[in-house]
Structures are given as structure tokens and as C-alpha cells.
Amino acid sequence: MKHGSVNQRHTRACPRSANGTLIPHRCRGAWQWVLEYGRDSTGRRLQATKSGYPTKAAARTALQQAVRMYESGVAVTGQTVAEYLHIWLSGKHALKPKTVASYSDLSNNYLIPHLGHIRLLELQAHHLDRMYAADTIGKRGRPLSPSTIRRIHAVLRSALNSAVKRRLIANNPADYVELAPENPQRPKALVYQSMCSVPDRRRRRPTRRPVPADAAQRNATWRGDRSALGRRRP
Prior knowledge:
234 residues, alpha+beta, 3 strands, 37% helix
């Protein structure tokens, strides 16, 4: 397999001769890498390219990363996140139409506006952190709740998991993002009470009530205790 090449793209401002060839000069154009990874059924060469690097070293580093992805079995393509999300949503035949509509709504309103222009191979966790930091206002102008952000993240994570299975990316960057808790526990306020208002819950001994004299005589008579009543004289 070829390891690709790195070259500099010339602009219209670059000097040219009368026949249109370039004159040796110090070019100001951006650098790009080109990777050839095979041929199709018709014999045409299959290439992947990426430009916009300010220096030759930056383009070479990006080329080495693309070569490592190709050697690991990941398809090196120029597919963007928006293109992939549309393809992924169109293939969700096992889901209910209402669920597919919800996924499409979250993708079109939040994911594609922030991540759609990024190449799928170049999507990193810091892109997702920036999206969640900036995506705080919903369609109605209200701040997004943590539960809504978690639903958006769940859709993106499911889509990227499918991309990993299809060998479009090496790993899922959504697995390395930490979200805010959905229902944070709020601390309870401490209420101070005076000692006078606190009821005394100690067990108190019951008070013994005095027994009336006539009741004592009736009890003694019922028990047959004649000594308590005194003996009668004949």
C-alpha cells in the first residue's frame, strides 16, 4: 500500500509563464495530503485527500493518521457528519415512525448545525464539548434541560456506534464526553430550633392515683378479707 504524498496547492496569485507553467517562487498556498488506497472495478484509482493545512509538517502528520486508520480497517472517506446522519436515519427501519421523527428532529435542530460540516473521521470529543457548551437555548428560546441534552447525546452516540460497526471510524468520541446529571440533588436547608420548642420525648413514669376508701372496702369484701373490715360483735 502506498503511504500517500504531501504537496502544496497553488493559488491564482502564483506567477506563471506565458504557456501557463508555474515559475519557481515562494508559494503561499495551503498544504494537502493525497492517499491512494486501491482501485475500483473499472480500474480507476481510489484516492482520499484533505487540504487546508498551514504547514507541510501538519499535512504530513494528518497523512500518517489517515494511513493508520486505513491499516486498521477504517474506510478513509471524506464523508461529513451531516451526510452520515442522513444515511443513518434513512436506514432505521426497525424503529417506529414517531421515534424516527424524534431522532430526525434532534439531528436537524442540534447536531447538524454544530457538527454537520466536520468530517466524520475528524470528529473528536472536544467538538461535542463545544456543542453542548454553546447549545443551551432551545427552539422556543428557553434553556435546554439536562434531560434534553442527554436525549441529543443518546442519538449521536447511537449513530456513532453504528459508524464504528461499519468501520467508518475507529472509536466513538461520544463515549468520552461527561454530561451534567439529569436530576441533581439539591442540598436541604438546615432549620434550627430552640431547646424550649423541642418536645421532651423521654418516657415518663405513670402517676399512681389514690384509691377511694369505699372502693377499698368493696374490694376487700369481694376477696373475703374480713380482717380489713373488722369483726362484728355478737
